[in-house]
Amino acid sequence: MQLRTTWLSLVGLLLGACSDHSTWRPLAETEYTPAQAAQRQKAEAARDALAKALLGELTAALANGPQQAIAVCQERAPVLAAEVAQQHGVRVGRTSLALRSPRNAPPDWAADHLRSGPATAAWFAGSRGEFGAMLPIRLLPQCVQCHGEAASLSAEVRAALAERYPQDRAVGFR
Question: What is the H or E stretch that residue 79 is in?
Answer without folding.
Answer: helix 77-88
